[in-house]
Amino acid sequence: MARTYADVNDALGRQWYDYENFTIEWSSPERYEIIDRIGGGKYSEVFKGIDMVNSDICVIKVLKPVVDKKIKREVKILRNLTGGPNIIALLDVVQDQTGRYHSLVMEYIENVEWKAALILFTEVDIKYYIFQLLKALDFVHSRGVMHRDVKPGNVMIDHRCRKLRLIDWGLAEFYHPDIAYHIRVGSRYYKAPELLVGYKMYDYSLDIWSVGCMFASMLFKREHFFRGSDNDDQLLRILRVLGTNSFDSYLKMYDITFKSCHEALLQEYPKQPWTRFTAPDYRHRDLATTEALDLLEKMLRYDHRQRLTAREAQSHAYFNVVRLEGASHKGGLGEYVSDSGFCSM
């Protein structure tokens, strides 16, 4: 059972989480025009578009044909969460005349690419954006939802406007205690250990591991901190950093039977000090402060119940300056934006 927000969905009631019986009222797509393709993946194609009624730029996510249940889940979750802090806004849902193609219309964010962000971001930037991501996740978890695919590609950052949005809710799910969830979620480099060892009784803490992986990338200036070639290699890379002693204890505590034909996974590895991963040229060594590494240590733990929650992480001493600025300026680091997200002129 999750340490926090375990019974949120029961408290909010079936109408809040029952997406299978949720009816979507689709709009006509005529008012939107596609400008350019932004990206895409297994479940969707994403385009930059324009709302012809008000000339606003938007994002049009065209869903590939999937079961209705999956579409309903994503729309229901977005409807529930839209308006929350740092959550991408769902503006409209449209369906073509044939009823075969469905699209989600969302707010547009002028995103900075992850590789560029790693070079560009200062210590203050890292503190600010990780704090904003945790703020989003605390809201999401408090509404009974696990994102299950937190990664750089799903965290849009408009650096000029100092704005962050958590996007892509296609793998998100409502959390209920004592439910065995599917482990084929997340993206490999950001998969928590519980997914890699087949533990299905996971909870919101899955998302905190993913944030920890992003945080490690920022501190150590690596595009992906754990970069496995497959799931076994992904787990191996984690073992070589966090060590096998606590991994074995974790398996025993949760009665997880883990079998592997991968010989390297059966060997013993000592836990590595985080300072080992600072940039070799010392240019970014100042990012890996004692407070930063303490926060990282408390996010990247095998035992999901020992990871900080999103709320607890926001209270960590690492973010003292962000909280102080937030108290002085509504948007935090107030030379940039207000909470509304619009750039100040």
Automatic annotation (TrEMBL):
Q: Which domain of life is it from?
A: Eukaryota
Q: Provide the E.C. number(s) assigned to this enzyme.
A: 2.7.11.1
Q: Which UniProt keywords apply?
A: ATP-binding, Kinase, Nucleotide-binding, Nucleus, Serine/threonine-protein kinase, Transferase
Residues that hold ATP according to the record: K61
Gene Ontology CC: one annotated term: cytosol
Against InterPro entries, the record matches this protein to:
CK2_alpha, Kinase-like_dom_sf, Prot_kinase_dom, Protein_kinase_ATP_BS, Ser/Thr_kinase_AS
Reactions it catalyzes: L-threonyl-[protein] + ATP = O-phospho-L-threonyl-[protein] + ADP + H(+); L-seryl-[protein] + ATP = O-phospho-L-seryl-[protein] + ADP + H(+)
Q: Start and end of every Protein kinase domain?
A: 32-319
Q: Name one Pfam family in it.
A: Pkinase
Give the location in the cell: Nucleus
Q: What is its main location?
A: nucleus
User: What is an example of a GO molecular function annotated in this UniProt entry?
Assistant: protein serine/threonine kinase activity
Which BP terms from GO are recorded?
Answer: regulation of cell cycle; regulation of transcription by RNA polymerase II
- Function per UniProt: Catalytic subunit of a constitutively active serine/threonine-protein kinase complex that phosphorylates a large number of substrates containing acidic residues C-terminal to the phosphorylated serine or threonine.
Q: Subunit structure, briefly?
A: Heterotetramer.
Q: What does the sequence similarity comment in the record state about its family?
A: Belongs to the protein kinase superfamily. Ser/Thr protein kinase family. CK2 subfamily.
Q: What is this protein called?
A: Casein kinase II subunit alpha
